[in-house]
Predict the structure.
Amino acid sequence: KVGDRVGVGCLVGSCGSCQMCESGYEQWCTSTPGTLWTYRADAEGNPTTGGYSRGFTVREDFALHIPEELDFAACAPLLCAGITTYSPLKHYNVGAGSRVAVLGMGGLGHVGVQIAKAMGADVSVISHGRSKEADARRFGADHFYATSEEGTLESLRGSFDLILCTVSADGLDYAGYMAALRPYGVFVDVGLPTEPVSLPLRAFVNGGKSFAGSQIGGIAETQEMLDFCAAHGVIPQVEMITGEEITQAYDNVVASRVRYRYVIDTSTFPESA
């Protein structure tokens, strides 16, 4: 109703009637034109521009209720990073007794660590170096491993039920990470490297392991994620910026200097933009 605090995530519409939509997976809408994204999509001849937009036109059932416990600005990344990490952790039944590793401690990873910990898992962070170890532990990580240290990956063989990979860098030792899974473990990738990857089939067959991908979640699951984060105090670490600071902020993201998400105050955009 008027006056409610609402959030708009990665999608603003879908057909609502295909099998995927009726099952709560609007992000996989199979109709034509399919899911209407808030960025890089075409809304009746008008390109959508995501977080650079002054506003959205959104179907009312695609607007999400923001719980009062969540800071309005700081929770903005939950609508992308939050659901991207929550969905696979829930799908693979992470809970008490689960051993979860989050690969990469950036904008996605720092939220994934908090969510996995709130679900009751024993959480490890695997990063290249140790510059983010203190932050990882502050977000709830029980263990921290640096792959730049010789023998680290080998020492983790058979350690995890699930590895959540948030890294988009090329050249990862995927076979090594598959070896770090326990039998029937799953490696879930939400990063998008630019180059194709290859894996020997023995990495899957030995131990009955799985390699999976994931991408956000449907509207009901996104609302569930927001309510979960409100109940467990999960909140991204953000820095609010103005429109004039976007270029510098983008350069900082590329250079991995951001801790951990920028949120743009779109009220600072010029009226003519």
